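testing teh design pipeline on a random one, pls ignore if ur not involved
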């Protein structure tokens, strides 16, 4: 399977309740051809720090159907070590969705970079709150 640029996304929730609006936004991105989900793992960390994880296709049937619109192609890219490392950073009494997402929108750019002999030396995703915080700091200096 040839892949374009990918990223790992871990989304933590208090307790074990994941919110539907995140799945809806992700489904929109999949339907619009902007991203493809190539691995998905659900993780729970209990109040004592005990960790349980399941690949998306291992979820009970009554939970699994919710993820059908993602058309996830489970590749196993997230190793047990990856999952354990991410899970260790979670708060006790929380749950998380771990996703490997292929950024289909960036494939043409990646091909152009490779074709031109370029090499990406940094690629970092900044969440909006981080950007806003930095802009506020800059405004204080200026």
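output:
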């Amino acid at each position: 399977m040839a892949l374009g640029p990918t990223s790992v996304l871990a989304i933590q929730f208090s307790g074990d309740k994941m919110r539907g609006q995140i799945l809806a936004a992700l489904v929109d991105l999949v339907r619009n051809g902007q991203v493809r989900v190539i691995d998905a793992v659900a993780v729970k960390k209990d109040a004592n720090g005990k960790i349980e994880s399941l690949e998306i296709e291992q979820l009970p049937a009554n939970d699994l159907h919710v993820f059908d619109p993602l058309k996830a192609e489970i590749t196993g890219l997230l190793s047990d070590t990856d999952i354990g490392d991410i899970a260790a950073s979670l708060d006790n009494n929380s749950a998380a969705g771990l996703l490997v997402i292929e950024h289909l929108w960036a494939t043409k750019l990646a091909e152009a970079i490779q074709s031109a002999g370029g090499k990406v030396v940094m690629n970092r995703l900044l969440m909006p709150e981080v950007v806003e915080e930095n802009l506020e700091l800059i405004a204080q200096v200026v």
